[in-house]
Amino acid sequence: xxxxxxxxxxxxxxxxxxxxxxxxxxxLLKKAAEDFCKNESTFSNKxxxxxxxxxxxxxxxxHKFQDYLTKNFEYVKGSSSKGIDLPSSxxxxxxxxxxxxxPQSSSPFKDAKQKIFGLGYNLLxxxxxxxxxxxxxxxxxxxxxxxxxxxxxxxxxxxxxRIREMIKDGAIKEDIIAYLNDKNIPADEIALNQIAxxxxxxxxxxxxxxxxxxxxxxxxxxRIVNLSESVYGITKLIDKINQ
Length: 243
Prior knowledge:
Layout: H1 2-19, E1 22-23, H2 26-40, H3 54-72, E2 73-74, E3 93-99, E4 104-107, H4 114-117, E5 122-133, E6 138-149, H5 157-168, H6 173-182, H7 189-201, E7 210-212, E8 217-220, H8 222-225, E9 234-239
Parallel strand pairs: 1-2, 3-5
Antiparallel strand pairs: 4-8, 5-6, 6-9, 7-8
Helix pairs in contact: 6-7
């Protein structure tokens, strides 16, 4: 009987605890990421000492940040292996963790338009500088940059810049198709015609990623990391690069 009562108390405790959690919003996500970076940048981490595999470090930090969110907020949790990390309609954000040595990651290829009109979701990009303390056997991940990038800014910088210039200069459909072919946009003739029509009726926003064609998109974040001016749709939560 006592065991049953203890179980009931535990269930009620968890229920009340979960009720007190705030529902995660974009604003709260940004603040949580900023706080997480500040805390982690001074944390002596034994688990990551001697680890040189960037993917392993990234997965570890992603999971740790997700745990941080779970403790403090109510939200829908996705999967880094199956899709977007934070898939709810109000958040729709993927988490990326990368080293300052080569700030890049991969992203699933959905269709060629992603390079021009954005990935279809927001990005939360953590960029760290790792150092090992051999005497203590610990690692420090100093987060030198953390940015929230809205979907509208997740297209390729050079491609969108040139397309926007072409539209201003009065480019016609054939001009757009020729440019897309020159840039090796991964699409067949029918798809390129459709993309060109869409571009002429929907001028793309200026993207800020560097996106390379591959079986998966290769996303590079150097331009975001080094961005010093204010750009609508890009929030620099941590910026030790441009101090």
